[in-house]
Specification:
Blueprint: H1 32-40, H2 47-60, H3 63-69, H4 71-90, H5 93-108, H6 117-123
Helix pairs in contact: 1-5, 2-4, 2-5, 3-4, 4-5, 5-6
Length: 132
């Protein structure tokens, strides 16, 4: 190994050494119930819950641009998402909120920019024990 080999980037570790990087490994600390909820949210929910999830995606889409260009509209939409969260808490509790949030993530991840689970977490902070 030469002196400059120490400073050059190393090749990614691969299974077959054909240039493709090894898969990224992550540790999922969610409990089995939450993993199941996330899996089920990849598929269509009941018609009522599906409509709620799609409404939330519409309300949260492009929130960053809206925050800087139209703060009043941003606040109105955020408050509407909070109202939806409160309603879900009263009619189904945290389990239903989680199901909807994961569905929002599943639908919203196809958008550019994406609408993610984290967007729901921020909007629903403090509702039904939800913490952002």
């Amino acid at each position: 190994m030469g002196l400059f080999d120490w400073f050059s980037p190393k090749k990614p570790v691969t299974k077959d050494n054909k240039g493709s990087p090894a898969p990224k490994r992550t540790l999922d600390l969610r409990d089995t119930k939450e993993k199941s909820t996330a899996y089920k949210a990849q598929y269509t929910l009941t018609p009522a819950d599906e409509k709620i999830a799609r409404d939330i995606v519409t309300l949260l889409y492009n929130k960053d641009v809206m925050y800087s260009s139209n703060r009043t509209e941003f606040d109105r939409r955020r408050e509407r998402v909070r109202q939806i969260g409160k309603n879900l808490c009263q009619n189904g509790g945290r389990d239903r909120m989680e199901q909807i949030a994961y569905r929002v993530h599943a639908i919203g991840s196809t958008y550019d920019p994406p609408v993610t689970l984290r967007n729901c977490e921020y909007a629903w902070d403090g509702i039904c024990g939800w913490m952002a």
